[in-house]
Model the fold of this input.
Amino acid sequence: MELHKYLVVIEKSETGFSAYVPDLSGCIATGSTRKVVERNIYEAVKFHIEGLKEDGLEVPKPTTESEMLVFAA
Done:
């Protein structure tokens, strides 16, 4: 089994939180709290990868990176 480490972007929304994985097109989740959206996106990634494998498609390798930059406001 090959392990991948994907970047997950979590954003605050008007009704809670949303999350997506830039390297897995269409892999998204929502939740009323950050904890809920984290659990939901974890399950969404697992489901997405299982679906790719079942369809005989290649699982994309992670390519997206992030960095936090600090600016004076």
